[in-house]
Each structure stands twice: as structure tokens, then as C-alpha cells.
Specification:
Elements (H helix, E strand, L loop, with lengths): L2 H7 L9 E5 L5 E4 L1 H7 L3 H4 L12 H13 L3 E9 L5 E10 L7 E7 H48 L3 H25 L8 E3 L1 H15 L4 E6 L7 E3 L1 H22 L5 E15 L2 E13 L6 H4 L17 H11 L3 E7 L2 E9 L12
């Protein structure tokens, strides 16, 4: 079978996040999928008709595994196995060898990098937790809004009956706090408003956030930009993306303000293209990566895995909603947001697939 026909036969494996090899009984490679090309840093054309030793410093583990698979006439699987590649990298993988009765090849090997599995599992847990938190907060907000309105109305009526000005100050406190809580409830319900999708440029979003941040915070903020201007437009809700990025950027500046009353505070916006990236159990051909980096004190390790949960905040006066809302908005764009932090450098990374299956639904004129 010709190589292009063989690739057609393996078409279903082209988009897999796991790395797949097809070999004959002499360990000669007949096919590798794109994920294998990325993991082992060799192209399909370079690998085709080469011995599998092209990839690994030693191949006895293949021979042993293949022998056991043939003896049992079923797949042989090895968990947490360390292999050393010809690029001098040691990677922890689980791999499966499956005998196949084909004229062109005799078995298939599937590799799954363990750290990738852990990341995917973490993403899945975060997604499930986010959905549960979102539903909880939505229900909570609805339950609070009605009695809150009654409380504010009663305070206004009471204020009209009071003759002493000093007593009216107390009713005003009730009204002001009711208004503050009402605004908080509105924020909790924002993610459930229907998005307005249209063609969006990520740098227009960032420039809007930049102007808002510079107008809100002091002059000793040094905000730098490093943009890849070749990034294409994608379908998105511009206002929600602005709010998501603004929440992250504002969070970073507030963290820096807590420890740096003097001197420069550094905030960086960086955009890049990402190729063949896997998240939410799906491989994306191209995506936009946005890094928002601040020079603040860093996030406590105990909070790092919880910062996207609602009502969790590292600041004494924080509501714990900003990052949770940002995650909701990014998830609505089939994207992901992650964070890494050390003292002096906290980086939030937002990844947005260019092909995100969203449909334009601009407002009717």
C-alpha cells in the first residue's frame, strides 16, 4: 500500500492527542500521526520506512512487549515507563502495543505522555468544578436578589419616617450596602447573559484593556506589549473578552500595589500563535496564546489551584469573583486559562482556538 493510502487508512488517528506508530514485524515504521511527530520531533516523511530505533536509544522494551502481545494475541500495556529519545530527552509515557493482521504492518504502538494525561485530568476537574460553581452562584444570586430589594425598599420607607438626621445615616448605610450587594449579584449573573459573537481581533481587546488599566491605576505602572501582529481574527464576544482580560490584569496590578507603593510595577501583554495544542481533550491546529505577566509578590501555593473558584481571593478586600468570571468568559469561547506563579512573576495564560465552532450572531439593527 502506498504511503498516502496508508495515511488515508489512519485518517481517524490524525487528530488524536496520543502518539501513534504503525510498524511491521521488523520494527520498520509505516505510519506515525501528527502527535507522534510533535512528541518525538521527527516528521512522518523522515520516519517512514525507518527502523523504530530512529526514535529511541534502546528498543528491547519494544521487542519484549511485542512478544508478550503476540503470545496473548491481545494488546500489551505498560504504565509509567521512562523512554529516552534520540533527541536526548527522557519522557514518562504509558504505551500500548496491539498486534494487527494487516499486509502492510503488523502492530500499532500508542504512546500517551503522563504529564499530558495529568494536565488533561486537571483541566477536566476544573471544568466540572466551574460548571458546578457557576450553577450554584446563579441560583444563589436569584435567591438573594428578591429579599435584597425588599430590604432596600423598607430602609427607604423607614428613612422617610425618621425625623432625626443622625438616624437617617443608618438607613443610608443599609441602602448603600444593599446597592453594593445588588451589584455583586448582577456580576454573578453576567456569565449567563447570551454572548454576542462576531469577528474579533485579540489586539483590539488588549488595547482597550490597556487604556482602562492605565486610566485606573497610578503612573508608576509600566505596561509593555509584545504582540504577534500576524494573528488572525476569530469569532468571539468582544465585551466579554475585554472583561476577562481586564479582570486578570486588574488582579495583577492590585497584587503589585499591595507590596509596592514606590517604584515601577511591571505588567506585560504577550501574544503568540500556538500550533497543534491539546486542551479540553481536543487537539487544535492553531490557537492564540495570551500571556499576562505581573511582577507582584506571587500567589500562595495553597491558593494556586483554587484561584478560579468563586469567592476565593488572596486579597483581604477581594470579592473572589474576578478570576472566576474570567474563566467563565474564556470557557464560553472554548478556550482555557491557566496560571503559574513565583515571587516576582505571576503569569496567566489564556489560550483561544481560532477554529472554535462559534457562530456569528451580531445584534440586529
Amino acid at each position: 500500500m502506498k504511503p498516502n493510502l496508508l495515511k488515508t487508512e489512519f485518517k481517524g488517528m490524525e487528530d488524536l492527542a496520543t502518539s501513534v506508530f504503525a510498524c511491521d514485524k521488523n520494527l520498520v515504521i509505516k505510519y506515525i500521526n501528527p502527535s507522534a511527530e510533535i512528541l518525538f520531533e521527527l516528521s512522518h516523511d523522515q520516519a517512514l520506512n525507518e527502523n523504530i530505533s530512529l526514535f529511541f536509544t534502546e528498543i528491547n522494551f519494544f521487542k519484549d512487549a511485542l512478544r508478550q502481545a503476540k503470545a496473548k494475541q491481545s494488546s500489551y500495556r505498560e504504565y509509567e515507563y521512562f523512554v529516552k529519545t534520540k533527541q536526548n530527552k527522557t519522557i514518562c509515557v504509558s504505551f500500548t502495543i496491539t498486534p494487527i493482521e494487516k499486509k502492510e504492518f503488523d502492530f500499532i504502538v500508542e504512546f500517551s505522555q503522563m504529564d499530558q494525561q495529568l494536565r488533561v485530568a486537571r483541566e477536566e476537574r476544573m471544568f466540572i468544578q466551574q460548571q458546578a460553581n457557576s450553577e450554584l452562584l446563579r441560583n444563589l444570586a436569584h435567591e438573594i436578589r428578591n429579599p435584597l430589594g425588599g430590604l432596600r425598599g423598607a430602609a427607604q420607607l423607614l428613612e422617610k419616617e425618621l425625623k432625626e438626621k443622625s438616624l437617617k445615616e443608618y438607613t443610608q448605610v443599609i441602602i448603600d450596602e444593599a446597592d453594593r450587594l445588588q451589584n455583586l449579584m448582577n456580576k454573578l449573573l453576567i456569565p449567563h447573559q447570551l454572548p454576542l459573537y462576531k469577528k474579533t481581533n485579540i489586539h483590539e481587546v488588549l488595547e482597550r484593556v490597556r487604556s482602562l488599566i492605565l486610566s485606573e491605576f497610578p503612573e508608576n505602572l509600566n505596561l509593555t506589549r509584545d504582540y504577534d501582529v500576524s494573528l488572525p481574527e476569530f469569532i468571539g464576544d468582544r465585551e466579554k473578552l475585554i472583561q476577562a482580560v481586564l479582570n486578570v490584569a486588574r488582579n495583577g496590578v492590585q497584587a503589585m500595589l499591595e507590596v509596592k507603593s514606590k517604584g515601577k510595577m511591571n505588567l506585560n501583554f504577550i501574544t503568540r500563535a500556538e500550533s497543534q495544542i491539546v486542551f479540553h481533550k481536543k487537539k487544535h491546529t492553531t490557537a492564540i496564546r495570551l500571556d499576562i505577566i505581573d511582577s507582584g509578590p506571587g500567589i500562595d501555593k495553597k491558593l494556586l489551584d483554587k484561584i478560579f473558584y468563586p469567592l476565593v481571593s488572596g486579597k483581604d478586600n477581594g470579592s473572589g469573583l474576578g478570576l472566576s468570571l474570567a474563566q467563565n468568559f474564556i470557557t464560553q469561547h472554548n478556550g482555557m486559562i491557566d496560571c503559574s506563579s513565583t515571587p516576582g512573576k505571576t503569569k496567566f495564560s489564556i489560550v483561544l482556538p481560532i477554529e472554535n465552532n462559534l457562530k456569528i450572531n451580531e445584534a440586529k439593527k
